[in-house]
Amino acid sequence: MPDALHRRIADDIRRRITAGEWRPGQALPSRADLAAAYHVHEQTMRLAYVLLRRTGILEGEERKRVVVAHPPAVRTLTDADAAWPYSCEVTDARPVPATEELAKRLGVAVGSLLRHETVECMDPGGRSAMLASAWWRGSRKAHVSYTAEIDTVPLGVDQAHALGLLVDTLAFRVVRTRLDWHGTPVETADLLLPMDRWRIRLHG
């Protein structure tokens, strides 16, 4: 079966970008203009743009101008507890009630009021590289060890907006729980890592 039309158009746009017709950071023509140039319906061009954003060729939000993406800096996560070496910005610090999952992770009752902080971590070029949301009860306490579990999750609206990706794009989620001397959880966090910008390497 031949490829769908929007896939063929996406392949041609990718070829033109590789050839240097549009360079990283440069905006593409409007969807309507490219639809006219390719003699297709604007909806077909929208699907091509969606595909190119999902594969990291273009970046930009739905219904806005898109630009050629800079090749992402692919980083390797080896220590989920290491301090972030570049700039960070706190984007949310509202207390929240413990969900069933957070209550289990922290060993508290469902509905307990938790302190919360979401931090956007930037790469050296100032682009978002990771979102880290942490929850704890009371004052922040020192920890001596941590556990980490890795899975993948679809990005929600706010998360996708912060990372410059589409809603429902899959990202690595590292669930990090910090422990005190007695092995009691003192803080838990979700680290969201865009899959096109990270690889995970575990040391035994």
TrEMBL record:
<dbReference type="Pfam" id="PF00392">
    <property type="entry name" value="GntR"/>
</dbReference>
<dbReference type="InterPro" id="IPR036390">
    <property type="entry name" value="WH_DNA-bd_sf"/>
</dbReference>
<dbReference type="InterPro" id="IPR050679">
    <property type="entry name" value="Bact_HTH_transcr_reg"/>
</dbReference>
<feature type="domain" description="HTH gntR-type">
    <location>
        <begin position="3"/>
        <end position="71"/>
    </location>
</feature>
<keyword id="KW-0238">DNA-binding</keyword>
<protein>
    <recommendedName>
        <fullName>HTH gntR-type domain-containing protein</fullName>
    </recommendedName>
</protein>
<keyword id="KW-0804">Transcription</keyword>
<dbReference type="InterPro" id="IPR000524">
    <property type="entry name" value="Tscrpt_reg_HTH_GntR"/>
</dbReference>
<dbReference type="InterPro" id="IPR036388">
    <property type="entry name" value="WH-like_DNA-bd_sf"/>
</dbReference>
<dbReference type="GO" id="GO:0003677">
    <property type="term" value="F:DNA binding"/>
</dbReference>
<keyword id="KW-0805">Transcription regulation</keyword>
<dbReference type="GO" id="GO:0003700">
    <property type="term" value="F:DNA-binding transcription factor activity"/>
</dbReference>
<dbReference type="GO" id="GO:0045892">
    <property type="term" value="P:negative regulation of DNA-templated transcription"/>
</dbReference>
<dbReference type="InterPro" id="IPR028978">
    <property type="entry name" value="Chorismate_lyase_/UTRA_dom_sf"/>
</dbReference>
